[in-house]
Amino acid sequence: MAGRTAPRARPGGPLAGRTVAVLGLGYVGLPTALALRDAGADVVGIDVSTERLRDVRAGRVDLLPEQLCRLQAEMADPQDASFRLTAEPAAVTAADAVLICVPTPVDRHQVPDLRMLSAACAGVVRHAVPGQLLLLTSTSYVGTTRELVIDPLRARGLDAGTDVFVAFAPERIDPGNSAHGQERTPRVVGGASAACTERAADLLAGIAPAVHRVDSPEAAEMTKLWENTFRAVNIALANELADSCHSLGLDPRPVIAAAATKPFGFMPFYPGPGVGGHCIPCDPHYLLWQLRARREHVPLIDTAMRAIGRRPQEVVRRACQRLATAGVPTAGARILLVGLAYKEGVADLRESPALEIAGRLADAGAQVEYLDPLVPSARLAGAVRSTVTDPGATDWDLVVIHTVHPGTDLSWLDADRTLDVGHRLGAVAAAR
């Protein structure tokens, strides 16, 4: 068909003949919807934000290039009902399966914000019809699927495992990383019954290379919390060890590379300015919140999350220290922050440490600007200006390296006026 930029899914795909509703078209839901479509399913994409739906239709979304190409192909024919977008939650009634992919953030006190998840689950329960598969993928506390889906369905007279099929399968999206696409990443699933697990596994097998079954939704929920709590604790350790290296006059990156040559018992984690995005800054707090309510004490996890939370403040302290050593007052100092996004290759600002770093420096009186080719504009606190176009044209008092996107030219840097909070400049220089 004229105007298409990628081939359509084949009618004989593993999910051909099925209609799947995806509730929530964010960083998880939209790639999932595209993967389902590639597997041959008809897809109903549902999002309560009409602005988000407009952005999806126009291709103004943060996707990998190949995913964006696929999206443009699906949107090329507005009359094609095989990939339909709507803001109406009741559209789930037409689906054989419903995937709930809404955000589960925390508030400024690190308390789980369950409003979006609760509303999404309530809507799906309200519109559920017999025979459907209801699959929750949003990361949450242990027991969420039972409390927000299974029990309310029973109150409606629908038994999970008999009338409808309910399971939890945590998302495993790695934004901006094509090496870890859904088609390459195994999925974990736990259903309300053996029949629920098998029904969910059959669907997921169409978009994942393997499906690992566990015996309950609670086990699947804990799996995701375990994965990201493991990462958080090790990142906190990497930050602490990097600071130790700094005190001893060592560059931590070569030390990590050397340790990583051991083929067993070691996994490399890297220091940085903190953590951002949808998972590590949030998911462990769902576990901590639940365990505190049970009066369970988990000091290692709690300490790690506190240390991660303090990391941006530590970056600001080091920045001010570097300025003071150079005889430059922080008030009035010209500071460039390289990279606002929370990780390389994405435009996502959620929970990005750069936002707190920029705000704190601006509050201290610094003149802060930023360089990020993926974020042309952003709402920032204080006196932070929009992104610069020619960083080498200004005599910066300090450049703070936060996120280095692929292809970023840093040849203009003055090493004596640079604070590389991730200790990456050596690797970047070698790559050039």
From TrEMBL:
SUPFAM superfamilies: 6-phosphogluconate dehydrogenase C-terminal domain-like, NAD(P)-binding Rossmann-fold domains, UDP-glucose/GDP-mannose dehydrogenase C-terminal domain. This is UDP-glucose 6-dehydrogenase. Keywords: NAD, Oxidoreductase. GO terms for molecular function: NAD binding; oxidoreductase activity, acting on the CH-CH group of donors, NAD or NADP as acceptor; oxidoreductase activity, acting on the CH-OH group of donors, NAD or NADP as acceptor. GO terms for biological process: polysaccharide biosynthetic process. It comes from Streptomyces longwoodensis. Belongs to the UDP-glucose/GDP-mannose dehydrogenase family. Residues 336-421 form the UDP-glucose/GDP-mannose dehydrogenase C-terminal domain.
